[in-house]
Amino acid sequence: MSEKKSFHLPDLGEGLPDAEIVEWHVKVGDIIRLDEPLVSMETAKAVVDVPSPFSGKVIRLAGAAGDVIVTGSVLAEVELDPSLPQRADAQDTGHHHGGGHAAPAATQVVVEEEQNDPAVATQAAPAKAASADAGTVVGAMQTSDAVRSEQAIAIGGVKAMPAVRALAKKLGVDVARVTPTGAEGVVTLADVKNAAQAGSAKLGAVAPTRAPEPSAYRATASTPAVSRAAADPAPRASANLDTDEPIRGVRRNMVRTMSAAHAEVVPTTLMDDADLHAWAPGEDIMARSIRALVAAARAEPALNSWLNAKEGTLRRHSRVDVGIAVDSPEGLFVPALRHCERLDPQQVRAELNRLRDGVKTRSLPPEDLTGYTLMLSNFGVFAGKYATPVVVPPCVCIVGAGRLHHAVVPVMGGLETHRLMPLSLTFDHRAVTGGEAARFLRVMIDDLQRAR
């Protein structure tokens, strides 16, 4: 009698308790070989191709596209084929590491908005990128065979999973012109791939006429294209209104993260302004902000730290990895800008552009979304001068940059109009004293107020 093996959903390398099925690469009855792609799973950060740890006949698949599988529960069952290669039981499969590839949501990601100022836009409250350090995971990870069904999102009358929309964008396919073959008219990954191969639904071609969406806020032809998020007040959410829908993907992780932060952190916020009057025209605000964070972290390393309250330890970092809070319709992302203490302004800009594009296409690998040592949010591009940004453990510090504005300031001999950058520093008072936080903010302000 042939041996049957169950494959349980592994931790895909992000410390998250579940993942969503995007697409099965096999069906029941298929023969799959060792390390061939079994299924694509979407976590809060990326789409991961999960390889098969066995060779043999597929006899069970747990769930369909859109179902959420709890980490550790059965994902598939395979009847082993002794004539095909198998991995030794003690051999490391590598499945616990996972790996990302470009996919999900086709989104408008707001990382930068350059209007009258070369300011860089991120969002107000950052989402946690789960750390590889086990000490940063909140609570115990429970496993079961539970499966929660979720639906494809309907946008403009077209039903498709976020991963399908992202693939369509990457391949230059207009998802509205793709013939759906999925259940209840859902466009699948295979539909998009077939349309791309046939060239039958290219972006820019005339799409079928659809009923206009009932919105009193649709942008007109005269709406400036400089800042769509700021200029177009139309609702950015793609979900149906007045209905209870499951929280999915990035937003589900945001619920967990913010709940944990609220329960753990003792937050205190300091606010002040940096006077940018000495700056030359065309200064890169984000590059200058990163430089100021590096200077402050060197002066007060207690704020460039990780707190492990359970173990009673504080790790002060020599490196400065800044988590850049990024806003998208899918939720909040925090990609890490690595080793900022080594980067010049041009390198900072290049890395920011790479991270921006990676978030937009959801192509950043999980390791780019973890391990930052402090955080920065530039919420002021939308509105607001001051805020109380949320510190996400194990970090102990986040800086929020508010809306740049001009104000009358007293100077020797009279009054002048200067451009000011409001700053809001939230710190975890369990790990940082008020004096340390104030000195950190003072160093940031002094560096920002330098001409160069």
Classified in CATH, the superfamily of the domain at 134-139 and 249-448 is Chloramphenicol acetyltransferase-like domain
Separation, N- and C-terminal Cα atoms: 76 Å
Low-confidence stretches: 90-151, 206-233
CATH C-level category of the domain at 134-139 and 249-448 = Alpha Beta
Summarize the amount of helix as a percent range.
10-25%
Q: Which descriptor suits the 3D outline?
A: elongated
Q: What can you tell me about this protein's structure?
A:
The chain is built from 7 helices and 24 strands. The chain has 452 residues and is of the alpha+beta class. Among the domains are: 4-101, RNA polymerase II/Efflux pump adaptor protein, barrel-sandwich hybrid domain (OB fold (Dihydrolipoamide Acetyltransferase, E2P)); 134-139 and 249-448, 2-Layer Sandwich (Chloramphenicol Acetyltransferase), CATH 3.30.559. Strands 14, 17, 20, 21, 22, 23 and 24 form a 7-stranded mixed β-sheet that branches. Strands 9-5-4-2-7-10 form a 6-stranded antiparallel β-sheet, with no helix packed on it. A 4-stranded antiparallel β-sheet has the order 1-8-6-3, with no helix packed on it. Strand 12, helix 1 (162-171) and strand 13 (186-187) form a beta-alpha-beta unit. Helix 1 packs parallel to helix 2 and helix 5 runs antiparallel to helix 7. The longest helix is centred in the last third of the chain and has 17 residues, at 345-361. The protein is elongated, with a radius of gyration of 24 Å. The model is unreliable at 90-151 and 206-233 (pLDDT under 50).
